[in-house]
Each structure stands twice: as structure tokens, then as C-alpha cells.
Specification:
This protein has 633 residues and is an alpha/beta fold. The chain contains 19 helices and 20 strands. Among the domains are: 56 residues, no CATH class; 213 residues, P-loop containing nucleotide triphosphate hydrolases (Rossmann fold, 3-Layer(aba) Sandwich), CATH 3.40.50; 63 residues. The chain is 44% helix and 20% strand.
Length: 633
């Protein structure tokens, strides 16, 4: 069954043609990734497909009876409402049924009439039909998985990452038949990404997504569409298959280009000798010449990205951390007696949940945050380059090339040569025609890439990169990986991109929470394999006494249909739950009240949110058990 059709799409922006003549379709169950360099028009194409924008030419159609949803890079949320209210602003049938029920209930409670009672009955029937009675509980579960726990918090107080996660929760809860996702893994930690993978793999939906996360792409998608220089190429299979097919396409194009060059030279000689009186034959040959010239001049392969820089000299002492401790209040411990001595050329990855203190750790190394205890000693020859999560801080009316030239005109190379910043820009995907563009005309991904180059052009010998893969396209990521593989200095990376980490790091610092950091030798996948094996081992060794109690099976049926008599042990358990639940609910109300007053104390919000999640899970467990036991009374 056809889900989406795009026919002959054209789109230009700022006098630049993003794409022309694009035609493709999606069938039911397709899971397709769209990849392209930043600024090529990925988001513009998604906005057109999602009917948020119109093409300059062409037609898009989505099957009418399908329910579909779109996660954009800039979510549209109601800042005046709470998190939970925003979840129920969706257009899914179940969500509409709940909204209609709440409205009908309110109307009937204000003025009970035969008409209001009938409307309430119809609304209740719709909620039952869509199995939406537990929709709020499901919403809280999904939000909790995405590290959002205070569902009554005003959306206006959320960070950019929290807003994106809220929007993601909303489209998932709509349970659409067709889902369009623009960079869904941005602002998710690794645990969240792996949870999202399971959600999307388990659902029989049609999917079109833009992502730079290659493991995510590999696990989810069975087809790749590439937007390259305004044209669309299709590759069946996963990411590895895409790379193989793309390399073959480039090889064929290179061969065709060489043939075109030879023909071009011969045709040029003929044009120069051609008599002024043009016959029909000569005109047709001129038209053919124009086509050959176009093919001969077309560049298919990007400039080689491999290059070795000559970094600043590095002495014996690199960076030494002695007995570092850092906490925010009594509830959030970042570091507890952490000591480490960095070695020459190390490449270390940092992983852990959001809010556990990874960025705080980097800020301490850079002197932007002071430790509570301990000492940080850097060698005299160390030159740090810090790529943080802050946006590019340059005027919009500055030229792209001047953003680098104000720091350096050349980049010294290992072979003694000097690389002009213009060539450096080209190697990271900035074509010649973009060098004198205003910064304000760049896309978000292009600004992020330019910000990265500002760090690299200063020629540091110790790179500290905080989420460098966010908003970078796959082509730029491959270039950055090539740069860092050959980079002779030290690298410390915080990233949720597992492919990126696996390709680069020698070992990982695992932030486990409450100040505990595990130094694991190997890359992220090595660590994850070990952690999974360790978890399985502990489960097997767990004593039976520690297992959850199994309800006692009664031999005699209860006089009440569908229920059973409670044993003495179960009656005691019921009494304990009835005493415990009011205390937990009071504690929950107090924590939610405190959260609603917090707006800028980020670390406290993170700590309190994590505690609230655990409390909600315990309440859910006790409420479910209470219902089970109550049936036996």
C-alpha cells in the first residue's frame, strides 16, 4: 500500500537550489533514512513532506486514511501549559477521545441534563473503544523513559533538550501509522537512544527519518535516500550497504567524468574551428557539446579529508587530576575522590545518563567550574581546544571565512606545509561559494560545523569535545573522525554517538552516578558487552530469597467469581501497602511542588526528577499490587 508520494519536487532558498526534480515514494512498513550534508535541504524536504512548507514546484500526497505525525527540529509546544497538557494536544484518536471525555465530564458536572449524560456516555464509549483509559499512565511512562518526570511543570521552564524529548514523547504516544522524524536522537543519552530503537523496531509503522547516528540508522532502517548536490539517490539495505553502493557510484562517475573530459577537449577544438554558418548538424553537435561540458565540469568526489596537522609541542606532563570531588547540595554528587593521569595521545570517551555531571567534569578541567576538593594540574606546554554545547558566538553579518581568519590564516601541517583556512573549510564541507556568505544565512548544522573549525584551527594539543556529533551530518562526521584518528594529541569526548565512540576511543569513563566513575579499557561496545554479561551473571547469582514474593495459590475457589481468598500473608501485605501508599503520595506531592518552583537550578532539577521517577515506579507497583489483593477481599 502506498503511504507517501513525492513527484518532481523543486525548492530554492536564498537563491540557492536545494533540490530539483525529486521523485520517490514510501510503501506501508518502509523504514527509510534520509542523509545529506548540512545545508543540502534535508529539513526543507521533510517540512514539505509534512506539509509545513510548499515546494516551488511539484506535488506531495499522503494516504488520507492514515494517521501520521512529524517530529521537527523546532517543536511547536504550548509554553503556557504543563508537560502533560502538551502531550494531550496531539491529534491521535485516543488523545481526542480523552479530551472529549474530560470536556463532557466537566459539562455534565456543571449542569446534568439528558443531553449531557448522553454526551458523557458517548465519550466514555470512545475512550473504551480506543483503550485510552490508561493513556495518562502510559504518557508518564514514556516521559519517564525520556527523563521527564514532573508532568505538571510548565513547558516555558524547559530546556531545549527537554522540549525536544517532550515533542518526541508526544508523537510516540500518538501511535501513528506513519512517522516522520528529524534528528530524533539529538538530546538523548545512550540509554534513551537504545530504548527508542526498541520502540521503533517493535512497531509496524512506516518511518522516514533524518539522523546522523549510524548505529541507530543501521538497526532501524532498510533503505537510505541520499540528497547529494540537489539530486536524490536511493540505496536499498543498511548503512554498510549504503557506503559500498555509494563508493561504486563514485567510481562509475569518476570513470564517466574522465571520458567526458576527453570528449570535452576534442569538442572544444571542433567548436573553435567551426565555421560561422551553422548547419542543423552543427547545432545538434553544439547542444551535445554543452551537455558534455556540464558532465566534464561536474565534481563527484569530495576533496580528500585525510590530513595530518602539526600540533603544538607536548611536554612530559599532560594533565593530572588528584582526588577530585564535586557535588551540588546533598543530593547530586558528580565526583567522589577521582584521580587520573592523562597520557600522551590518549583518546577517552565519556558516557553516562543525562544530568549525571559529564559537562560539569569538562568545565572543571577547563577551569570554568571549581572542584569542591582536589587539584587539577596541566602541563606547561598544554594548549586546550574546547568545543562545548554553546551556540556559535559571532555576528550574523560576518563572512564565513573571516570567522576562521580572525584566529589564524593557515593551519600548520605535519609535513611542514601550511594549509590555508579556505582549504580547511573545503575539507569540512564548505564549498568555495559559501566562504563569503554571511554567517546569518547558514543552517544550524553549518553553524555548528563552523564552530568546530574555530576550535580546530587554533592548533591545540588537547581537544575536549562535548557532544561534537550533535547537528553534524554523516559526511562531516566521517571527516572529523578521519581528522581525530590521525590527530597526535589527547582527546576527551562526551558523546551519545556509539559509532563515533567505537571508532575513536581507547577507553571510556563511565559516569555511573553518585560520584562513581568506572574507567573501562576499550570502546563503548566493548564496555556494553561486558556490562550486559555482568548483569546476566549477577541475575543468575541472585539468591532466591531476594526475588519478588510469589502469590500463594489457593486450592479452593473463592465464592466470588473471578477472585480468590487471601492468605494470612497476603492480608498482612495488603495492610502494609495501605499504610505505605498515603505516605508515598504525600512525598510525591511535596517533591512536585518543589519542582514547580525551580527554574534555573538545573542540577537540583535533575536530581529531584530522578528521585521522583523512582517514587512513581514504586507507587505504580504498590497500586497494581493493591488492586490484585483487593479483589480477594
Amino acid at each position: 500500500m502506498n503511504v507517501l508520494s513525492a513527484e518532481n519536487l523543486h525548492k530554492s532558498w536564498n537563491e540557492k537550489t536545494l533540490f530539483s526534480g525529486i521523485t520517490f515514494g514510501l510503501s506501508k512498513g518502509d523504514k527509510v533514512a534520509l542523509v545529506a550534508a548540512n545545508g543540502s535541504g534535508k529539513t526543507s524536504l521533510l517540512n514539505i513532506l509534512a506539509q509545513r512548507d510548499s515546494p516551488d514546484q511539484g506535488l506531495v500526497s499522503i494516504r488520507k486514511e492514515l494517521h501520521w505525525a512529524y517530529l521537527s527540529q523546532e517543536p511547536e509546544l504550548d509554553d503556557a501549559s504543563s508537560i502533560l497538557d502538551n502531550v494531550f494536544l496531539g491529534d491521535a484518536p485516543a488523545v481526542r477521545a480523552v479530551r472529549d471525555y474530560e470536556w463532557a465530564l466537566e459539562q455534565h458536572s456543571q449542569l446534568a441534563t439528558a443531553a449531557s449524560e448522553k454526551a458523557l456516555d458517548q465519550a466514555m464509549e470512545a475512550v473504551s473503544r480506543y483503550e485510552a483509559w490508561d493513556l495518562e499512565a502510559r504518557a508518564k511512562t514514556v516521559l519517564g523513559k525520556l527523563d521527564i518526570h514532573n508532568v505538571n511543570q510548565p513547558v516555558a521552564t524547559l530546556s531545549g533538550g527537554q522540549r525536544k524529548r517532550l515533542a518526541l514523547a508526544r508523537v510516540l504516544l500518538e501511535e501513528p501509522d506513519f512517522l516522520i522524524l528529524d534528528e530524533p536522537t539529538n538530546h538523548l543519552d545512550i540509554a534513551m537512544i537504545e530504548w527508542l530503537e526498541e520502540q521503533l523496531m517493535a512497531k509496524s509503522l512506516t518511518l522516514l527519518l533524518v539522523t546522523h547516528d549510524r548505529y541507530f540508522l543501521d538497526r532501524i532502517c532498510d533503505r537510505i535516500l541520499e540528497l547529494d548536490k540537489g539530486e536524490l539517490y536511493e540505496y536499498p539495505g543498511n548503512y554498510e550497504s549504503y557506503i559500498e553502493q555509494k563508493e561504486h557510484r563514485y567510481a562509475v562517475a569518476q570513470s564517466e567524468q574522465e571520458k567526458a573530459h576527453n570528449i570535452y577537449r576534442r569538442e572544444l577544438e571542433w567548436v573553435r574551428r567551426m565555421p560561422k554558418a551553422r548547419t542543423t548538424k552543427s547545432k545538434s553537435r553544439l547542444e551535445a557539446f554543452d551537455d558534455v561540458a556540464l558532465r566534464a565540469k561536474k565534481q563527484h568526489r569530495d576533496e580528500a579529508s585525510e590530513f595530518g596537522v602539526k600540533m603544538e609541542r607536548m611536554g612530559r606532563k599532560i594533565l593530572e587530576l588528584y582526588h577530585l570531588e564535586k557535588a551540588f547540595g546533598d543530593d547530586l554528587c558528580i565526583l567522589e575522590d577521582f584521580t587520573y593521569t592523562f597520557k600522551r595521545g590518549e583518546k577517552i570517551g565519556i558516557v553516562g545518563p543525562n544530568g549525571v555531571g559529564k559537562s560539569t567534569f569538562l568545565n572543571m578541567i577547563m577551569g570554568l567550574e571549581k572542584p569542591d576538593q582536589g587539584k587539577i594540574v596541566a602541563g606547561e606546554t598544554m594548549v586546550f581546544g574546547y568545543f562545548d554545547q554553546q551556540p556559535l558566538q559571532v555576528p550574523d553579518d560576518m563572512r564565513v571565512i573571516d570567522v576562521l581568519r580572525e584566529l589564524a590564516e593557515f593551519l600548520p601541517m605535519a609535513d611542514g606545509s601550511r594549509l590555508p583556512v579556505a582549504q580547511f573549510l573545503r575539507r569540512f564541507g564548505f564549498a568555495n561559494e559559501t566562504h563569503y556568505q554571511w554567517v546569518g544565512k547558514l543552517s544550524g548544522g553549518e553553524k555548528r560545523r563552523l564552530q568546530l573549525l574555530r576550535v580546530l584551527v587554533t592548533n591545540p594539543n588537547f581537544l575536549i569535545l562535548d557532544e561534537p556529533t550533535n547537528d553534524l551530518d554523516i559526511v562531516t562526521l566521517a571527516t572529523l573522525e578521519s581528522f581525530l584518528i590521525d590527530y597526535p594529541g589527547c582527546v576527551l569526548i562526551v558523546s551519545h554517538d556509539r559509532y563515533f565512540m567505537d571508532k575513536l576511543v581507547d577507553h571510556v569513563f563511565v559516569f555511573e552516578g553518585q560520584g562513581k566513575i568506572k574507567d573501562y579499557p576499550g570502546n563503548y561496545s566493548d564496555y556494553r558487552s561486558w556490562a550486559d554479561a555482568e548483569k546476566a551473571r549477577l541475575q543468575q547469582e541472585k539468591p532466591k530469597a531476594a526475588a519478588a514474593p510469589i502469590p500463594v495459590k489457593e486450592d479452593k475457589p473463592s465464592p466470588q467469581a473471578g477472585s480468590k481468598k487471601l492468605s494470612f500473608k497476603e492480608k498482612f501485605e495488603l495492610e502494609q501497602i495501605e499504610q505505605s501508599m498515603p505516605k508515598l503520595q504525600a512525598k510525591k506531592a511535596a517533591m512536585e511542588a518543589e519542582l514547580s518552583t525551580l527554574s534555573s537550578e538545573f542540577e537540583r532539577i535533575q536530581s529531584l526528577s530522578a528521585e521522583l521517577q523512582q517514587l512513581n515506579e514504586e507507587l505504580d507497583r504498590q497500586e497494581l499490587r493493591w488492586l490484585e489483593l483487593s479483589e480477594g477481599l
